[in-house]
Amino acid sequence: MPDARYAPLDALPRTAPGAQVWAALGGAGLTAGAYRDRRPGTGIDPAGLADLLTAVDARFSVAATLSVSVQLATALPLLTTGRAPVARQALDGALAGRATLALAATDVTAGTDLTALRTELRIEDDALDVTGEKNWIANTTTAAHFLVLARHRPGRHFTHFTWVLVPADAPGVTVRPADSALFAASGAGHVTFDGVRLGRDHVLGRVGLGLPLFARHIGTERLAGAQWGVALCRRVLADTHRRLAGRPHGDGALWDRDAVRQRFAAGLLRVRALHALTVELADQVALRHDATAAATLKAAAGATVHHVLADCAQLWGAAGFTTGGIQELRAQAALFGIGGGADEVVLGTLADAAEDVLAALERPGTLP
Amino acid sequence: MDARFTALLRPFLKPAGPGEITLTPDTDLRKLGVDSMQAIELLFAVEDTFGISLPDEELNDTTFATAGSLWNVIAAQLPAGAGDGTAGRETA
């Protein structure tokens, strides 16, 4: 029985872009359900976030879901660190779905080398000046505001970075869409800030807390990625199961063949493992900002989505190459190993915590 | 450096070899494993434990260079008498 709450989503075409989906979520009052007590400043509610991501994933493209996910999990909570009216107004607009937000962290430099970012924030007595460029940012072409991670000092120290809220219509802001058919519906693009002048009240959080805030909020994006990965794999497996059961082969169906069933079961196993890990670690990420737990979820989601979609695509055979088919979905879903912390980055974080992770797996009193 | 500070700092330090770390004001935090991610967690732990916010102008690499430099910035934010201001030698 479909949940009537999601009727505003059902009213949209399956091809709706992310900004349209975001507007429908906010307009229906659904967005607030991702947060404890329905207030973004109190942090993520893992169950509420998973519900929304699953509902959006079931109805719209990977690109549209990306647009929603990054706003729900990271941009909107990060915006609550701004105390000035300008941030409050942007928050109200985003929560109500009247405006989209773009989280502009990735610079012209490699996303895996965040502290090398070049976008500069000059802090004057009563003004800010932002100059730089951000590439491959979701929601760029639709955003009313950019949340920009910029450096206010040279060097790589973690205290040299600050978040600043930049209105998309401020003089000096130039937006261009990314050359990507796969992610056009996410509003993906590149944005240039050319001497953008703003009031000091556009600083989000505090000067120097850019990377600490990023570290806290990227954790919830990694949790969201794992929750979304479960939803995506589950629906792809369900679609694939229906396909296999209805596809004649010999005296029966493709589903009756052992090789097919075993390959499919391996996918089931992977998604159940990701689901279990997500349930186990959700509160550690959402409540305790555990960076290792968040990296674990992100790494697991990247591997799971990759394997499950590759196996299901193989089971679809030539039909998988249909326009909008599973091979196209698989190409979009490569995002899980790249966005929000590439596989290599999150595995590195996990390796850094190797001793603690191994210690946590010990059963006290059992070792010689 | 008071006992709360050294107790807070201890889990962030990774000795290079066997034996305990002698914690002094000159103890180099980076050399003992306090990299960027660790320092971020240390910052949040300091602010939560002492109920303070480090001043924006003190959020820099100099503050996080040594145990003593970090403690001095923390002590300056504590109510009068709550921090002893200077550090004795501690064993972590």
UniProtKB/TrEMBL annotation, chain A:
Pfam families cross-referenced by the UniProt entry: Acyl-CoA_dh_1, Acyl-CoA_dh_M
Residues covered by the Acyl-CoA dehydrogenase/oxidase C-terminal domain: 210-353
Cofactor: FAD
InterPro entries: Acyl-CoA_dehydrogenase, Acyl-CoA_Oxase/DH_mid-dom, Acyl-CoA_Oxase/DH_mid-dom_sf, AcylCo_DH-like_C, AcylCo_DH/oxidase_C, AcylCoA_DH/oxidase_NM_dom_sf
Residues annotated as domain Acyl-CoA oxidase/dehydrogenase middle: 102-195
Domain of life according to the entry: Bacteria
Keywords: FAD, Flavoprotein, Oxidoreductase
Similarity comment: Belongs to the acyl-CoA dehydrogenase family.
Name under which the protein is recorded: Acyl-CoA dehydrogenase
Native species: Streptomyces nigrescens
TrEMBL record, chain B:
Pfam families per the UniProt record, alphabetical: PP-binding
All copies of domain Carrier, residue ranges: 1-78
Keywords: Phosphopantetheine, Phosphoprotein
The protein, known as: Carrier domain-containing protein
